[in-house]
Write a structure and sequence with these properties.
Layout lengths: L1 H16 L3 H16 L12 H8 L3 H13 L3 E4 L3 E4 L4 H4 L4 E5 L11 H12 L5 E5 L16 E4 L10 H5 L3 E5 L9 E5 L1 H14 L5 E5 L5 H10 L9 E3 L6 H15 L3 E4 L5 H10 L9 E4 L7 H4 L3 E5 L2 H17 L7 E4 L2 E5 L7
Parallel strand pairs: 3-4, 3-5, 5-6, 6-7, 7-13, 8-9, 8-10, 10-11, 11-12
Antiparallel strand pairs: 1-2, 12-14
Helix pairs in contact: 2-4, 3-4, 6-13, 8-9, 10-11
Length: about 375
């Protein structure tokens, strides 16, 4: 009898050490009952692992095993870095399949350098497993012809149409989020940087450094990046002596010649570039004129052009938008919205930062 009791005790202790279901079965049972009885309603965050460890007197690894069981049962869903949450009644069916997220970016990109690549990197950081998949549909795709059996969510990085026209997508069951487009429509989500505000901050950065003659090349007098220039300087129109109006979608040489003429004839002491595509023409122009940057002329660009330091070895500043974070959070929102249509429509503004690249700062 004595030996049998010792053996039973050893078996029980061994089972505890190995996280036997006996150890956490009570926790699984209690949490399941609370979820099914709406004590923990759909969308509610589960108690922390530390709290459950303390309440049930079991190890943290046993608590994790219990939560794994609940996840396998489709009662909860784990969100990395955020915790575990109670699923909707039918959410267990939804999270077992892959969600297709569409992204209308350019197919021709330089990885890690241009706008679209940074957005794709952010979206891919969320859609990198079985939960969701990224589908690049291209900028020229006919948005109105997209079908729900192809994508279930869409991140619109390029869209200049009427926001009301996107109802053809939402009516078909495709969840949509605008990227760097802001709308007042209540049912349309967006993640965006306030271009007007950040453009003003960029020009003020140069003004605060003592520059009075700040040149720029503008396309549209009503564009947010262009209006930010005027409002930061308290102007109603662009000074003709040191700013130039340009046409969009032209060859680099066209922009180089325009900027070169402005720098030569207008003699600005600083230059504000409204777009990253103007950076190479700007550097080509200053090299032709044998101007030193930043000694003879300072420059700030409203786009992340840090990689150009490796080519030109000149110090400059730029507006850095959190594009990767925005892409990741846009994809995360679409997944959650598709899984649970009742969650609020996402409308989020992000702040940009001004970064100055100097010798030795930039790492590839």
């Amino acid at each position: 009898m004595y030996d049998n009791m010792n053996n039973a005790t050893l078996i029980k202790k061994t089972a505890v050490r190995k996280n036997s279901p006996v150890v956490y079965a009570g926790l699984v049972r209690d949490l399941s009952e609370q979820i099914k009885g709406d004590v923990l309603p759909p969308g509610a965050q589960m108690p922390s692992e530390n709290l459950l460890t303390e309440q049930y007197g079991i190890s943290r690894s046993s608590v994790r095993m219990a939560l794994n069981e609940l996840e396998k049962s489709g009662l909860i869903i784990k969100r990395p870095g955020k915790g575990s949450f109670v699923c909707d009644r039918f959410e267990s069916e939804k999270i077992t399949r892959t969600i297709n997220i569409g992204l209308n970016c350019s197919f021709e990109i330089v990885s890690g350098r241009w706008y679209d690549a940074m957005v794709i990197d952010g979206v891919s950081s969320t859609c990198n497993g079985d939960r969701c998949r990224t589908n690049i549909i291209g900028r020229a795709a006919n948005i109105a012809e997209l079908k729900k059996n192809y994508i279930e969510g869409l991140i619109l990085t390029q869209y200049n149409g009427r926001f009301e026209d996107l109802s053809v997508l939402t009516d078909s069951g495709i969840e949509v989020i605008l990227f760097n487009r802001i709308t007042t429509l209540e049912n349309l989500a967006y993640v965006a940087v306030n271009y007007h505000r950040e453009a003003m901050e960029a020009v003020r950065f140069l003004r605060d450094r003592g520059h009075q003659r700040i040149g720029t090349a503008f396309v549209d007098t009503n564009g947010f990046r262009d209006r930010g220039y005027l409002d930061a300087l308290g102007l109603t129109e662009f000074p003709s002596e040191y700013t130039i109006q340009i046409e969009s979608v032209q060859a680099d040489e066209y922009y180089t010649e325009k900027i070169e003429k402005c720098l030569r004839d207008g003699s600005p002491t600083a230059f504000y570039l409204t777009n990253g595509s103007l950076a190479i023409p700007f550097f080509n122009a200053v090299e032709r004129l044998k101007l030193r940057v930043p000694e003879d002329i300072e420059m700030i660009c409203f786009d992340d052009i840090a990689y150009l330091y490796q080519i030109y070895k000149k110090s400059f500043s730029y507006v850095k938008m959190p594009l990767k974070t925005m892409g990741s959070e846009a994809a995360e929102y679409l997944c959650r919205k598709i899984e649970n249509p009742s969650i609020p429509v996402m409308k989020k503004l992000y702040r940009a930062e001004i970064v100055t690249v100097r010798k030795g700062d930039y790492q590839n």
